[in-house]
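Postdoc handover notes: sequence design on the structure in folder B. Input tokens:
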């Protein structure tokens, strides 16, 4: 399991600007939809939904570090968001009543507002978590596909290199034997070109012999 410090750093690293702007935009939309049902000023309602949205985002990211094998990570993240939604909603109500829990539960308007915001946060947060998990899984699938393609390309290149080395090993003796046969024919025929051809062959062998075992030697 990751250490608390490592988990905190990973959570902050995953808190990208795109994610923050997305959840804040959704928080604004939820506040705008709920505003007609509330007597609370819109700015207060917006502040509560934004705080809840950020808390749910942090919970979703932090739950991704779950490393126990008896429960899938994706399920842990969804459950964490589902549990955090009502808890975060209740907490944002406490400052307005000086931290008095009974003042929230005993007031019909506050309790109704708590239920509305909690249910909205639960539904939107869960849907957003599932959508994010789907995109992450799709990205992982594409990454694996690219990795497999890269490995296949590497294996194909290695196979081609092996074929080229085999062809090189087959051509070198064949070329050498043909050249020697031509030199022999020129010598037997008494051709004046025999000495020049033999000299060229010797020069070639001097240059080629040190590179016969070099994988980068050209044909």
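Designed sequence:
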């Amino acid at each position: 399991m990751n250490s608390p410090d490592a988990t905190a750093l990973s959570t902050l690293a995953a808190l990208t600007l795109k994610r923050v702007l997305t959840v804040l935009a959704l928080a604004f939309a939820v506040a705008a939809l709920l505003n007609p049902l509330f007597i609370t000023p819109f700015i207060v309602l917006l502040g509560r939904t934004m705080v809840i949205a950020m808390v749910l985002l942090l919970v979703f990211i932090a739950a991704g570090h779950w490393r126990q094998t008896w429960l899938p990570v994706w399920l842990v993240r969804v459950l964490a968001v589902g549990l955090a939604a009502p808890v975060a909603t209740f907490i944002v109500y406490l400052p307005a009543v000086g931290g008095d829990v009974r003042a929230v539960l005993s007031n019909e308007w506050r309790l109704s507002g708590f239920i509305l915001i909690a249910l909205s946060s639960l539904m939107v947060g869960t849907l957003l978590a599932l959508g994010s998990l789907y995109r992450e899984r799709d990205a992982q699938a594409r990454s694996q596909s690219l990795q497999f393609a890269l490995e296949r390309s590497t294996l194909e290149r290695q196979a081609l290199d092996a074929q080229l080395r085999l062809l090189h090993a087959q051509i070198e003796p064949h070329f050498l034997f043909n050249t020697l046969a031509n030199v022999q024919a020129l010598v037997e025929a008494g051709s004046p070109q025999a000495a020049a051809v033999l000299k060229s062959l010797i020069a070639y062998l001097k240059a080629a012999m040190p590179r016969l075992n070099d994988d980068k030697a050209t044909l």
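Context for whoever picks this up: The chain has two domains: 4-153, 163-211. Don't rerun without checking with the PI first.
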